[in-house]
Amino acid sequence: MKDINWNNYSLETQAIRAGHKRTHEDEHSMPIFTTSSYVFKSAEQAALRFTGQAAGNIYSRFTNPTVSAFQERLALMEKGERCLAFSSGMAAIMAVGMGFLKTGDHVVCSRSVFGNTVLLLQNYFGKFGVKTDFVDLTDPAAWESAITSNTRFLFLETPSNPLIEIADIELLAAIAHKHNCLLIVDNVFCTPALQKPFELGADIVVHSATKYIDGQGRCIGGAVIACNEIIEKFIYPYLRTGGATMSPFNAWVFLSGLETLAIRMKAHCDNALELAKWLEQQAGIAKVHYPGLQSHAQHELAKRQQSHFGGVLSFELNGGKEQAWKLIDATEMISITANLGDVKTTITHPATTTHGRLAPEARAAAGIKDSLIRISVGLENIEDIKKDLLKGL
Ligand SMILES: *Cc1c(COP(=O)(O)O)cnc(C)c1O
Fold it and tell me: Any idea which residues bear N6-(pyridoxal phosphate)lysine here (predicted)?
């Protein structure tokens, strides 16, 4: 196999070809290496590998060829130096915390991040004396004034869930660096096909591969991407010791997910934009949240920062929970589930599911109304999606 520098290729090509090191069997498709350990040619080689003086596989908790192929491919696509795969998106975020935080440290986090990210920082890192302040994603002044001398990193998701607000990554990276902090971006909603946080100044990108990277709702996985130094010093030692490893089978599924990522994301975005415009025209709808709409507060920022507007939207009905549940229950085809990033369209009532554990006041402060519905727009025919929603509108 030729030694190709994949940095010279575009994302669509990297997604299909990078990472696979063909074996002596000359296979065309990436194999799954189901082996827990590897055999050394001598005691000396074993010693050199264990101490890191020689490259090569050691033990599949932290070295596996299928997982390595996934890591190499995703790092290239994100334009980061190195990627490490984890057993889930939460395990990836946990690894960043375990790698960087100690008692007395401080974190500034967007108020609009994945619910378990809030719980992880607040309840678990909080238990060990790490304090987290949560701020409005779209208010840079609030981010800056929350930073203290102990702040280690700023953490955000953009677009946010479920209100699809957009943060200015470049501006927040500048604020973070001015105060000697790192900026961590959860890039799950956009994936590298739509948004490249490193080009905007982010220091670490985290992923739940469970969503668009898989794309068909099959496996759980996650990843951390950063420069060599951060991975080598802070993330790899934790993965090797902590053991939240991605399985080779899941890596194999995610590798083929990446192959079609760019084309799927484009199709998700096309369907979502058309659905958002259509929803804005329907009676009974108070507001549609989608950055591709002129009515979205950060429409211009989204246009600048992303190549397309994403596959997730939300909307508020006239009324409350009763109207929202009625609409959800009236659909025939769309799946009632909280997962997103699937080829299947999914519908969720955030106030009673993903954000149901928040106190009503906290939910109101976050702007999540009882009439709010979130849709992860799939790749079914858009007219069928509209028809299904019309049943309850
Ligand atoms: C799902 C999700 C996570 C957590 O990922 P898991 O793979 O479910 O552990 C983190 N961030 C975002 C934005 C997500 O949607």
Answer: 211
